[in-house]
Amino acid sequence: MSTLEIKDLHVSIDTDQGNIPILRGVTLTINTGETHAIMGPNGSGKSTLASTIAGHPRYKVDSGSITLDGEDVLSMSVDERARAGLFLAMQYPVEVPGVTMTNFLRTAKTALDGEAPSLRHWTKDVKTAMSKLRIDADFAQRNVNEGFSGGEKKRVEILQLELFRPKFAILDETDSGLDVDALKVVSEGVNREHSKGEMGTLLITHYTRILRYIKPDFVHVFIAGRIAEQGGPELADRLEEEGYDRFTTVEA
Amino acid sequence: MAETTHTDITPDTPLDGGISALDEKARLGSATVGRASIDGFTEEGERLPGGDDGTEQLGFKKHSHGNAPVIPEASRGERRRSFDLADFPPLTGQEEDWRFTPLKRLRGLHTDDLTGPAPAIEVTGAGNVTVETVGRGDARLGKGATPEDRVSAAAWNAFSEATVITIPRETVAEGEVMVSITGRSAEPAAQYILIRAEQFSRAVVVLDHGGSVALAQNVEIVVEDGAELTVVSVQEWDDDAVHVSSQQAKIGRDARYKHVVVSLGGDLVRLTPSSIFSAPGAEVEMYGLYFADAGQHLEQRLLVDHATPNCTSRVTYKGALQGQDAHTVWVGDVLIRKAAEGTDTYETNRNLLLTDGARSDSVPNLEIETGLIEGAGHASATGRFDDEHLFYLMARGIPEKAARRLVVRGFLTEVIQQIRVPALEERLSESVERELAAGNL
């Protein structure tokens, strides 16, 4: 049982127009086995939270803390965070020139586990996971994300989730840009891993439709860098009907 | 990062024979569509330093052909070829073929008498290959290659002894021919090497350059009918070396020729590898790998001269750059002459900028004088390994240095694998690793 704890997190970015605060005091606790959905309108800071947890250098933490089982995540480098068990499924996975998927997956797995995976099992695991996510076998020989469609990139993110088996998965708008079939396949992947009971999930989404496939235990509504409201799955249903208007009006 | 782009022919490609550029494009398009190129790369090679903040525009851009005002030759085929130094005026740096080369760093190779001691040559391996040291009067010299620039002509006129390596007729060389070329003087020097693969012979010849030099070198390569020859030129010079080398190959009927360049060390290395088809049915592959560190200038200017029918050529050059003022130049000229019907050619150059402050120039040129060809195309892509790539790999647990190595190794391995001499491949892979480590990335 692990706990990812975010306390009073304030985050800003430096731009040409100066320093802009984005997160203004976020507090959130996720335990193994729980699924938390973070919902909110564009620009509310959802993705900033995801990137900050993963350690993207663009985001500056002004105050607050993130801990994983009491360990200070903010003092870790990006790769250390991954090795500590945090996984960010990216909203826009980049294409990495010159590195095949096979090579990348094995290198990452070796780095995460501290030892090379047994070749025989690993190859089989990769093949099985790929076929479950309906990723074409020849993708293994292609360069990471190179020439993949938006949907293929998202599947490959979930492929990594299933192969790397993190303690906490942060899914940054994994549902955006997916058609219904791809959404189902991707959601099944997340559910497969989650059902093993060894992972906590932070699901960031703009829309409610992925919540039909991945059932959240908690829903948090992000408005202007803060959690404006939280509740159970029923909150998502209400958002589906009402949208974010009620929050943004209050904010204005 | 920008989207992948690739082009077939440039709008300013000289076209002859009454074929409009549009017709060419339409017909040639099929040769290039669907070619895999590196995503996240732009085709743009000639980018001014400092002008790139990693946010290139999406979409297609045509090649720019340098920033200096340059009047192109009417045809690459009309460039002067001569053994007479007087036929090449003193260099000003404005010449089309010297405009990227920092002449000041040539250590006088273009101005001085090349009277320094030539680098020592030691040939090992393949006992059934003949190695001779001959005087400059030997009738075989200069039959298959003619200087195309001033430094090459100066080198032709200055050498006193030449090394002639002959793979006899119908002989398969017993192992690789390792030609170790070791510089020991910084005085401007000339060197001449002739490699002759006689009819139906087969061999791999490795020119392994090391030490310190200011060297103007001509390597003449004759691939006779039906022969199969690989020439690998490795430049692992000391940091102060200056090396200008013309490596011209004359390709016979149904011959197979593979040329591989690996340039890693030296202050200034400028290679002009040429493949000149002299009879039908031959195949040429030209590969190159270069890795420039801070301050290094690594330049390669290729010519594939399709003068005869039904020949095939493939050119793949890849470069990595790191550090302030690391500069690489790749110019690939492919000429399909009127007689060269049935030609099939494709050339690619890809560059990977690993740090700020480096500059890569890439200029593919395709000149077509007949419409009756199988295919012709080229692609050039220059991209950078940026913070987003690094973040992605590190977010999967891979430490920063390992992430950079993973990318560079993957990028350059394709060329190293073409050498097919395992011991040398291993050595060069290690050299690339050392380059990376030296960059303190």
UniProtKB/TrEMBL annotation, chain A:
<dbReference type="InterPro" id="IPR003593">
    <property type="entry name" value="AAA+_ATPase"/>
</dbReference>
<dbReference type="GO" id="GO:0016887">
    <property type="term" value="F:ATP hydrolysis activity"/>
</dbReference>
<feature type="domain" description="ABC transporter">
    <location>
        <begin position="4"/>
        <end position="249"/>
    </location>
</feature>
<comment type="similarity">
    <text>Belongs to the ABC transporter superfamily. Ycf16 family.</text>
</comment>
<dbReference type="Pfam" id="PF00005">
    <property type="entry name" value="ABC_tran"/>
</dbReference>
<keyword id="KW-0547">Nucleotide-binding</keyword>
<keyword id="KW-0067">ATP-binding</keyword>
<dbReference type="GO" id="GO:0005524">
    <property type="term" value="F:ATP binding"/>
</dbReference>
<dbReference type="InterPro" id="IPR003439">
    <property type="entry name" value="ABC_transporter-like_ATP-bd"/>
</dbReference>
<dbReference type="InterPro" id="IPR010230">
    <property type="entry name" value="FeS-cluster_ATPase_SufC"/>
</dbReference>
<protein>
    <submittedName>
        <fullName>Fe-S cluster assembly ATPase SufC</fullName>
    </submittedName>
</protein>
<dbReference type="InterPro" id="IPR027417">
    <property type="entry name" value="P-loop_NTPase"/>
</dbReference>
From TrEMBL, chain B:
<dbReference type="InterPro" id="IPR011542">
    <property type="entry name" value="SUF_FeS_clus_asmbl_SufD"/>
</dbReference>
<dbReference type="InterPro" id="IPR055346">
    <property type="entry name" value="Fe-S_cluster_assembly_SufBD"/>
</dbReference>
<dbReference type="GO" id="GO:0016226">
    <property type="term" value="P:iron-sulfur cluster assembly"/>
</dbReference>
<dbReference type="Pfam" id="PF01458">
    <property type="entry name" value="SUFBD_core"/>
</dbReference>
<feature type="region of interest" description="Disordered">
    <location>
        <begin position="37"/>
        <end position="82"/>
    </location>
</feature>
<comment type="similarity">
    <text>Belongs to the iron-sulfur cluster assembly SufBD family.</text>
</comment>
<feature type="domain" description="SUF system FeS cluster assembly SufBD core">
    <location>
        <begin position="187"/>
        <end position="411"/>
    </location>
</feature>
<dbReference type="InterPro" id="IPR037284">
    <property type="entry name" value="SUF_FeS_clus_asmbl_SufBD_sf"/>
</dbReference>
<dbReference type="InterPro" id="IPR000825">
    <property type="entry name" value="SUF_FeS_clus_asmbl_SufBD_core"/>
</dbReference>
<protein>
    <submittedName>
        <fullName>Fe-S cluster assembly protein SufD</fullName>
    </submittedName>
</protein>
